[in-house]
Design goal:
Layout (H helix, E strand, L loop, with lengths): L2 H13 L4 H23 L10 H9 L5 H44 L4 H38 L2 H15 L5
Helix pairs in contact: 4-5
Length: 174
């Protein structure tokens, strides 16, 4: 449809004192009515639908009685797995990184590097990075995938639902 035709139609509509929004609303209403008629004719549904496991799980996790204990248990397990699970990789990573530190120190001695350079680079920068990496990387590598899984499963919104009243009482929400 050309712009001239559109302007002609809209000017005729304006002369009829019909609101553009009313026309749009009527068209949308007709589309929805037609869609409902088509759906009623072609979709069969049973009267009694069984509650899915997700709905049962949702009811259990958001209940007033079991919601908080389940939430604390779930987050406690995540915390425990993160702490206990990170011990072994952290120890192995520290052992490996400090093994490298020994060889780097030997290299600096063999190159007759000044003590201040050895102290700054190996005992300062490298040792600090080795400690940070060996202590922080394994817990983060365990915690964040588990936390992402909990979020993808929809458990974190349920935790937020359980904590909603406490946030309101604390003034965190209006």
């Amino acid at each position: 449809m050309s712009r001239q035709q559109q302007s002609t139609i809209f000017s005729k509509i304006d002369n009829l004192d019909i609101n553009h929004e009313q026309i749009r609303d009527e068209m949308v209403k007709d589309i929805y009515d037609t869609a409902e008629e088509i759906a009623e004719r072609n979709i069969a549904s049973s009267e009694v639908e069984k509650e899915s496991w997700g709905e049962k799980f949702d009811t259990l996790l958001t209940s007033k009685c079991l919601g908080f204990p389940m939430m604390l248990l779930m987050l406690g397990i995540v915390f425990w797995v993160t702490i206990v699970g990170a011990n072994y990789p952290s120890a192995m990573l520290a052992k490996f990184l400090f093994w490298i530190e020994g060889h780097l120190s030997n290299l600096f001695v063999a190159l007759q590097a000044p003590e201040w350079l050895h102290g700054m680079l190996i005992k300062g920068v490298y040792r600090t990075l080795a400690w940070v990496i060996s202590v922080m990387l394994p817990p983060m590598a365990i915690f964040f995938p588990i936390f992402t899984l909990l979020e993808d499963l929809g458990l974190l919104p349920r935790v937020a639902f359980n904590l909603d009243n406490f946030f309101k009482k604390a003034g965190g929400q209006w």
